[in-house]
Specification:
Blueprint lengths: L1 H12 L6 H12 L12 E4 L9 E2 L12 E6 L4 E3 L2 H11 L6 E5 L5 H10 L4 E6 L2 H10 L6 E5 L12 E6 L8 H4 L2 E12 L4 E9 L3 E11 L9 H10 L7 E8 L6 E6 L1
Parallel strand pairs: 5-6, 5-8, 6-7, 8-9
Antiparallel strand pairs: 1-2, 1-3, 3-4, 9-10, 10-11, 11-12, 12-13
């Protein structure tokens, strides 16, 4: 019952269209129990509708029903690490149109909740390589995801320490970047896409969906977002540029970007969609 209500709530709050990517994404959200990843309750949560300056509130008790709402679940309040807002991520993953059989690099697995959803989306013939830089979270994610045969959790920084020879159809980051690290560019399969929070000096910016082009990447903005920064995928000068770019509300959604170059040579340009 909780899951049915949860899915109906996400459909309405995220203003989702009824189409195959949406239905596949909602089915994946419905199949993953949030309480399996949130730890023992009561939990500290924050509503997607709440003032972001207010502290998170504890749930009244440890009944899992409190998790089946559009709330982020606090994992480390001091570091700003959470299980992110599902009404945000359901729309983003539907827009990314994750295909069965896809190979995904997840940057920032947390405790594995969204890793499990990605696992459901790619199915048994796909694969999710999930990196987590916080050792405690990586250990929790590995334990939580042990039933998922198509998931590999790696402790480390995906922006600097990506190992192996895997290529990826999708890179999805749960930490804010200012550019696309060359270590990711080198591992992209043909027609690969990147779902990334492009964030500035205050950790706020816009989510982008990007594809490779001759000059670097072409992207479209999918709405305002705020994320913990991704170590190894940030430059101070680009963070200032991103902050200036997204100070204009019209740039936060349906604005086309070009990310030219990578690493020390990267820059971002914008134009109307």
């Amino acid at each position: 019952m909780h899951a049915d209500y949860f899915i109906d709530q996400l459909r309405v709050l995220a203003a989702l269209e009824s189409n195959p990517p949406t239905e596949r994404t909602l089915a994946a959200f419905k199949s993953v129990a949030r309480e399996d990843f949130a730890g023992k309750g009561p939990w500290k949560v924050r509503s997607a509708l709440a003032d972001v300056t207010l502290p998170p509130r504890p749930t009244p008790d440890a009944d899992p029903k409190w998790l089946y709402h559009s709330v982020l679940v606090v994992l480390d309040e001091n570091k700003g690490i959470n299980i992110g807002d599902p009404s945000l991520w359901v729309g983003l993953l539907a827009r990314a149109d994750v295909q069965p059989g896809a190979r995904i690099l997840q940057v920032g697995a947390g405790v594995g909740y969204y890793t499990a959803i990605l696992s459901e989306l790619v199915g048994p013939n796909g694969q999710v390589i999930a990196y987590e830089v916080e050792k405690e979270l990586a250990d929790r994610a590995a334990a939580n995801l042990s039933p998922y045969d198509n998931v590999e959790v790696r402790y480390g920084n995906a922006a600097t320490d990506l190992t192996g020879t895997d290529t990826f159809d999708l890179v999805v980051s749960f930490a804010g970047v200012t550019h696309v690290p060359s270590i990711w560019t080198a591992r992209l399969a043909p027609n690969a896409r990147l779902l990334l929070p492009l964030t500035g000096e205050d950790w706020w910016g816009a989510m982008i969906l990007a594809e490779q082009s001759d000059e670097g990447f072409c992207a479209v903005t999918l709405g305002r977002c705020g994320f913990y920064p991704c170590t190894g995928a940030r430059r101070d000068d680009l963070a200032a540029q991103v902050s200036a770019l997204f100070s204009k509300p019209e740039h936060l959604r349906d604005w086309r970007l070009r990310i030219i170059g990578q690493g020390d040579d990267a820059r971002v340009e914008a134009e109307a969609a």
